[in-house]
Amino acid sequence: MGRIWEGVQGWLPGGLNVAIKRADEHAAMVEVNSELQLAKLQHANVIRLLGWCIHGKERILVYEFMQNGSLDRYLCDRTKGPLLNWSKRFKIITGLTEGIIYLHKHSMFWLVHRDLKPHNVLLDCNMLPKIADFGSARALSSDVAEERTGRVMGTRYQLPNISIITDSHHFVYRCSNLTVLISFVSLFSGYKAPEYASRGVYSMKTDVFSFGVLVLVIISGRKNTILDKRGDTVGDLVRDAWHMWKDQRLHELVDPLLGVGYEVAEITKCTQVALLCAQEDPADRPTMTDVAAMLNPECISLPMEPKQPTALIHGCTERDTTSTYVGQSSRTMDITITSSAPMSTSVRIILGPEV
After folding, report:
1. Does 343 reside within a domain?
2. If pLDDT is split at 50, 70 and 90, which confidence band does 5 have?
3. How far is the C-alpha of 63 from the C-alpha of 214, rounded, in Å?
4. How far apart are CA 226 and CA 239, in angstroms?
5. 29-38, 291-300, 337-346, range with greatest mean pLDDT
6. Per residue in 132-147, is it b (16+ CB within 10 Å) or e — as a string?
7. Does residue 152 sit in helix, strand or coil?
8. pLDDT reported for residue 59
9. For range 285-314, the mean pLDDT
10. If you write DSSP's letter for every residue of 16-33 in order, what string do you get?
């Protein structure tokens, strides 16, 4: 939503360090207002908004400063990964659990974050997590409400049937005298729940799905999706983790940087809980209160087993794929391909002669 700077204000008590975010001038005011909801939130695992200034087009937000930055810095940078031993990772998982429960149940409203991912998890001086970046957050009308996003990018049209599929990267669309060669550029957003990514429907179970994928990333140190040089999906973390869990091969999932210094029982339980959270059907996912109970050391056996993830074909499920395009000129079209798989696909289109 904007750029962030670290600031030290000497006139603040104790020379408090703060993080200053200057919102992008194109950021929707609804995103800024969502961030301002933070002023009403008080929890050890939720970032604190200390102040703000809105003057004309200038929108400045001031947060508490997190010394250790975002979680993705440690998961993506293999030189920093060893700083996160299993004990710290488990505390991050349980801290996130408590933070999300607070947003869902104990804040002044039923708040859905809608954008949980490593980049939006900040770590304090003790490597404890705080949920940040509430630009996408929305309040629900009740704790069981299911709502639909009102955000639509431009005017949408249903793309007529595709006539030819050439390979996993391209297809040719013919309509009248126009032939369009479409090249797929995959932009995976694998932390988003399928119903949210494909239909814009969100609920508390949306955050549960994101949490599940996030836990698998914390355990494995892997990206949630792996692409080859051509852009094809060659690895899906949820699918791979399910097979490793089912075949009792979880040692293959665990981040090698953890060495042998981890509790097998804890990782096994965390993996199963994560897979339950990342179920395709929201009804199959637990609540975050259930998650906290399952992660409790006194919980010996889990009440459910996760279902096998839907098989992906070129990153999309077979049974729920739609294509829409937005805007057009004499030379270009912008098309978005969505599906019930936890991803979205941007399309680059070349308009040219018959191919």
Report:
1. yes
2. low
3. 23
4. 12
5. 291-300
6. bbbbbbbebeeeeeee
7. coil
8. 83
9. 85
10. -EEEEEEE-TTS-HHHHH
Q: Tokens at residue 171, please?
A: 């297809």
**Residues 106-145: tens digit of each pLDDT:** 888 889 999 999 999 999 999 999 999 998 899 888 766 6
pLDDT at position 7 is 54
**Which two three-digit tokens encode residue 268?**
């096994």
- Whether 210 is covered by a domain: the verdict is no
User: pTM of the prediction?
Assistant: 0.76
Eight-state DSSP code of residue 308: P
Say how far apart CA 295 and CA 183 lie, in whole Å.
44
Are 218 and 210 in contact, with CB atoms under 8 Å apart? no
**76 is written with which tokens?**
């993506």
DSSP state of 226: E
* Residues 186, 194: Cα–Cα separation, whole Å: 16
- Considering the domain boundaries, does residue 336 fall inside one? yes
In a domain, 320, yes or no: yes
Burial class (CB in 10 A: 0-12, 13-18, 19+), 256: exposed
Concatenate the DSSP letters of all residues of 238-271 into one string: HHHHHHHHHTT-GGGTS-GGGTT-S-HHHHHHHH
The set of catalytic residues is 115
φ, ψ of residue 135 in degrees (nearest 5): -65, -30
Domain membership of residue 172 as a residue range: 148-189+313-352
HEC assignment per residue over 165-199? ECCCCEEEEEECCEEEEEEEEEECCCCCCHHHHHH
pLDDT tens digits, residue range 152-178? 333 333 444 444 333 444 444 455 545
Total domains, the chain: 1
